Amino acid sequence: MSAKTMSRLSITKTPKVYIGGAFVRSESARTYKVSDAGGAFFANMPQCTRKDLRNAVEAAAKAGPGWAKRTPYNRAQILYRLAEMIEARSAELVASLVQFGARQADASKGMTVCVDRLIHYAGWADKYEQLIGSVNPVASAHFNFTVTEPMGVVGVIAPDTPPLLGLISMIAPVIACGNTVVALASEKVPYPAILLGEMLATSDLPGGVVNLLTGFRKELIPTFATHAHIRAVYAAAGDEDRRTLRLGAASSVKRVRFAAADTRWFDDSAQGLGVIRDFVELKTTWHPIGS
Amino acid sequence: MPKSKDTREARGRLIFGNLWEFDPAPETADPKLKPRYDLFIGGKFVRPKTEKYFDSINPGNERKLSEIALAGPADVDAAYRAASAAFKGWSALPGGERGKYLFRIARLLQDRAREFAVAETMDGGKPIKESRDFDVPMAAAHFFYHAGWADKLEYVAPGRTVKPLGVVGQVIPWNFPLLMLAWKLAPALAMGNCLVLKPAETTSITALKLAEILQDAGLPDGVVNFVTGAGETGAAVMGHPAAAKVAFTGSTEVGKAIMRQLAGTDRKMTMELGGKAANIVFDDAPIDQAVEGIVNGIFFNQGHVCCAGSRLLVQESVAERIVSKLKTRIRMLRVGDPLDKNTDLGAINSKAQLNTIKRLVASGVREGATMYQPPCVLPQRGFYFPPTLFTNVTQSHKVAREEIFGPVLSILTFRTVDEAIEKANNTPYGLSAGVWTDKGSRILRMSTELKAGVVWANTFNRFDPSSPFGGYKESGFGREGGRQGLLDYASIQ
Amino acid sequence: MPSRTPKAAHARLLDEIGSVDQVGIEERVAKFTTRSIKKTAKVWGLRMAVSMTDLTTLEGKDTPGKIESLCQKALHPHDDPTFPSVAAVCVYPSMVRHAKALVTGSTVKVASVATAFPSGQTHFKTRIAEVKGAVADGADEIDMVINRGAFLSGDFAKVEDEIAGVVEACGSAALKVILEVSELETYDNIRAASFIAMGAIRPGDFIKTSTGKTTLNATLGNNQVMLEAIRDYFVDTGIAIGMKPAGGIKTAKQSLQFLIAVKETLGDAWLTPKRYRFGASSLLNDLLRQLEKEKSGAYQAPYYFSDAAESY
């Protein structure tokens, strides 16, 4: 064989999902085949099951109290660190988006928006309280104030387009205010979420705060809907899935927020205080004033 | 076994001797100082048109650290022209992009934190553990916090539009050189203003080191300009016609002079001036933590703190106990080389300030208050003053009325809540106050009644970028920190 | 007229001794951790910590053989004969006579946990019998546990009476009263329990943080609450009580931080094994390792020291 034809066989990566700070395959050992935009075989993705979802919820619940107790300043710095990690590896993420059919220009633009969006929410972490909370002028000798608290474990169901920007845009506000997340990546383009998991792992974000699953929406959405320990769901979903989620949510009075189908993910209108407001509880305290 | 008399040691005789004396533990990081610092104008270090330089002294050993350019009116004018030229581009940047510059500055400062801490300690005399654990990290936190506001300005004044003011002139004091600079720079920049800032003449070095960081961060030229010098330079910065706003932190006396100077203009102002804070301890307070808070309130940064808890008001029933515990506690304070990691009280910032402290302490003794200073050996060279307590102080004593700005605590007593409030408010100042009690409703009553911009309950001298800071009455006006501080740099339309 | 119920007694005691602010005291102890101890001061502190160690083994699987090796280590912590021996070995009652036989004639004391350690949940007379048995077997010091159930239900008199009973059973043996701080939960409770214990014991006896058998053991915070209680009691009465933090102190650096707390709270008179002890097992080897490093200038491998658990 001539040197010319002796090309090196590359090492392909086994995709693993990021749960509880560890990289794992599905407990079921099931996978599904993902092909790139050209139709060529790319990899076998973990086809996560309801048990994987359950494990992820356990991990998120375990990480919850610690994450909620972090100072807002610390949460802000960690989100900023995540942005630093992503910016440094953006070429790899852009390539993965292009490989699955995104146009180069869109993928590049999407990456910068991903990073800027994280920074936007990093900035919110120590500010939303001043805007959502309040001191209330009650008509008695009481000091009365309202503060926010995170809800707990929040389920995120990401859109297929844009797969990565959608996922990050939904996770960032939810963790900025102290919740922990179990997210289902795009079914069609799951690989960027695998890469995101690797960046989360190096961002100072404690294990379990964000857990990323890959798999089939129709298998997992019913469990997102009914798992009582998931206290809120933020979903990019069609009518059928919305109905399933709302019905399931009713059993445990779960909060649901849907990303509108016409959400302009690349635009500043897709971010802001409004999203955070939907993932905090409000608590009002009364205290007497006297000698 | 009966409790026999002979095993009892003399009551109250705790021995704080030298059985276990600590070895010197000097911080050895290189502060990377230049022998001479020029002005920072238009993104570059430039020689002053005055061609004059003055020495910056290490108050810990009286040795010269570096030479600092003396800015004259022409230099201040050049700085304003650079800032005015930069304003259009800077204010037109999307908020998120301005925020990214501030995030960069915060990160670069975190990267070089130890180097800045050592420089700050050598230049100003504060203990390395304070510059390392408080000043520098808090300065970085201010940049980080305000970075996040830059793209959220529409939330600062709901229903209104906020715009930057233009070029802002700022003058800061010598007690927290880098931190006060961060308090001034970060909100003004987040809002889209450009700046001309003058650090205090005894502590200019960390500002000029920060200028290096601004260059590394790629901040557009002219957005921030530093002019150095003493009072005349400061007056030129405050009085320049191109200033859309001035912000001053310093003594009430100088603040009033600036207000007179600008009386004929419509210039916006923020004044953060002196204080004579009451720290009020009730008999149900957690005593040891109150003692700790009192110590932190007055001896933090050698008492060079405008909000220092310099008037201790103690409820009569616990006064004796508190004073005795205080005396024990301050024997633990280690006074000496600011660069030693175990130093609790460093050097007084300047010879002039040391003389002021000595003069006021002498007046206390002369007016009949009882002075206590723990045994401590002060270094031969440098400006030092031991921690000092005055008991038997009344409201009319000079040490209870004037801001000493040194490690000197005046202790007064009270019997009732109303008396405490009356005494606490009996001052032209109103910057801060402290309340120590286990009773929640009393804390809220006190914080309602006390005429002070910040009230600390069961704590003292806490600061946070998200918490507005500033005074009532002759302690000034305007706030720094939080949403409120940001608004002081905005034109609300 | 004030109520005489146990709960009211609780309130009165807290009123008398004052409360502890958690945030404030934790800020205070954080300052101890910023002290920088170098060179001769470091060697002095490390040697002092060695001499204050109650070298402990409290396991169901303890055997006379294990106790022998513990005692050898206590007597001769390191090859270097200039290294001090530890203060005591701390063992279960059944091991006291084995230990006593090995350390007799040296300065090393035999301490025994007793009173149904660690829970204390058995009849009082059984607990007293256990103390007497340990003393009869040669224990120089007894580490007892307080009745946390009685404390938490507000029956302070019972807690105090039981301690007094153990004091009597000790005879000439010194007593250390374990508060088991993790079960008392709040600093206010730790302060209250410290005063109850100090009121019942003799000068030179100790109060001690924990058994080492629960999740949270000695911390700088609860150590400080107890040091301040000892200080206040001493200033008021002139009676000097000793202090023993136990469990969780594993590194030389930690032990120096505890000693700084002692130096700055109680002063020089408590910088002695007579008044301050460390209840620890793995601490000793780290102290030796750091001492050796100070001497030789080179960082030491853990397996240079005998009975190192972490000899990888």
Spell out the key features of this protein:
heterotrimer; A: 291 residues; alpha/beta; three-stranded antiparallel beta sheet; 10 helices; 43% helix; 21% strand; globular; B: 493 residues; seven-stranded mixed beta sheet; six-stranded mixed beta sheet; 15 helices; disordered N terminus
Q: How would you concisely characterize the structure shown here?
A:
The complex is a heterotrimer of chains A (291), B (493) and C (312). By secondary structure, chain A is of the alpha/beta class.
Describe the structure.
The complex is a heterotrimer of chains A (291), B (493) and C (312). A five-stranded parallel beta sheet of chain A has the order 9-8-7-10-11, with helices on both faces. Chain A has a three-stranded antiparallel beta sheet with strand order 5-6-12. Chain A has helices at residues 50-69, 72-88, 90-99, 104-124, 128-132, 163-176, 191-200, 217-226, 239-251, 273-277; strands at 17-19, 22-24, 31-35, 41-46, 134-135, 142-150, 153-157, 180-184, 210-213, 230-235, 255-258, 280-288. The longest helix of chain A has 21 residues, at 104-124. In chain A, strand 8, helix 7 (191-200) and strand 9 (210-213) form a beta-alpha-beta unit. By secondary structure, chain A is of the alpha/beta class. Chain B contains 15 helices and 20 strands. Chain B has helices spanning 73-92, 95-111, 113-124, 128-149, 177-191, 205-216, 231-239, 252-261, 287-299, 316-330, 351-366, 398-401, 417-425, 440-449, 482-487; strands at residues 36-37, 39-41, 44-46, 53-58, 63-69, 162-164, 167-171, 194-198, 224-226, 245-249, 268-272, 278-281, 311-315, 370-372, 388-391, 408-414, 432-436, 454-457, 476-477, 490-492. In chain B, the strands form five sheets. A seven-stranded mixed beta sheet of chain B has the order 14-15-16-13-12-17-18, with helices on both faces. A six-stranded mixed beta sheet of chain B has the order 9-8-7-10-11-19, sandwiched between helices. Chain B has a three-stranded mixed beta sheet with strand order 1-5-4, with helices on one face. The termini of chain B are far apart. Residues 1-7 of chain B have low confidence and may be disordered. Chain C has 312 residues and is of the alpha/beta class. Chain C is 49% helix and 10% strand. In chain C, strands 7-6-5-4-3-2-1-8 form an eight-stranded parallel beta sheet. Chains in contact: A-B, B-C.
